[in-house]
Design brief:
Helix content: 25-40%
Mean pLDDT: 82
Radius of gyration: 20 Å
Number of helices: 7
Low-confidence stretches: 7-16, 19-47
Structural class: alpha+beta
Strand content: 15-25%
Distance between the termini: 32 Å
Shape: globular
Order of helices and strands: EEHEEHEHHHHHEEE
Number of strands: 8
């Protein structure tokens, strides 16, 4: 069936997925383990308001009313609070600039200084910092959002891998979404949802892998997605176009392993 990159460990994670956006917000972090005070106010706002549109990792859309001179952190804090996102240091908001490149919204600058037309701009919640080991993530809901980021990266061809590994990742995503294997259910789901750019080519392989995940909970499926993805060379890599001193176009990336240069 082809080779899978890396080696993987199968781990058991407790129960079903926890931490939906509208739950009571109970954290599993230990006392004093809070990552930062990102939820604090980001400064005073002045002027008339703007309505910002933000799409989540689950593709849901929310609208946020902001003052004209609001800082990026103000919008970030609202998104984190409404989404009950406790481990928010891992996440950021990105948008497309005039060159159609995805760039990060900077917390300490006014939104209107970064975005040409804020009210007409689509912001999207994304993972900004990738830990080398998903076991470092404390919250089950955070792992779920990370798995959705892997799903997005697969579809956008950011997370490069062999077709076989792509099929394995897709099979865990299917298990997370619809549960145990059912041939008719699998075919219907894969007909309505595109997980891979080459999905038609490997659909039977996705279903064959899915058959092996019997009894795996959504939380366990999310963890397996991250466990496989972290072995891949492009895990957590985000390209930023640049040029070297000779004018040659390059891509810079800041990943968990440090600064990388791609030609």
């Amino acid at each position: 069936m082809g080779e899978l990159e890396g080696s993987y460990r199968v781990t058991q994670t407790p129960g079903t997925r926890l931490g939906a956006p509208f739950n009571a917000g109970i954290s599993t972090l230990e006392a004093g383990q809070a990552l930062s005070a990102n939820m604090s106010a980001a400064g005073k706002n002045y002027g008339r308001g703007l309505q910002m549109r933000v799409v989540g990792l689950d593709d849901s859309q929310e609208f946020y009313d902001m003052e004209t001179k609001s800082l990026g952190q103000t919008l970030l804090s609202e998104v984190f609070q409404r989404g009950n996102l406790i481990e928010n240091d891992y996440f950021g908001l990105e948008f497309q600039n005039t060159q159609m490149n995805w760039v990060w919204l900077e917390p300490i600058k006014p939104i209107v200084r970064q975005v040409r037309r804020p009210a007409n701009t689509l912001f999207r919640l994304s993972v900004k910092f990738f830990p080398p080991d998903p076991g470092q993530i404390q919250e089950e809901y955070t792992r779920y959002l990370f798995s959705l980021q892997m799903k997005r990266d697969l579809m956008e061809a950011r997370l490069l891998c062999t077709e076989n590994t792509g099929a394995l990742l897709a099979s865990h995503l299917v298990q997370s979404e619809i549960g145990d294997y059912d041939e008719l259910g699998d075919r219907d789901y894969l007909r309505l949802n595109t997980l891979l750019p080459y999905q038609d080519k490997v659909q039977d392989r996705v279903m064959d892998f899915h058959r092996r995940h019997l009894g795996q909970t959504p939380a366990e499926s999310d963890f397996q997605v991250l466990e496989i993805a972290r072995k891949l060379e492009m895990y957590g890599v985000r390209f930023h176009p640049a040029s070297d001193r000779e004018g040659t176009k390059i891509n810079l990336s800041v990943a968990h392993m440090g600064l990388q240069v791609f030609q």
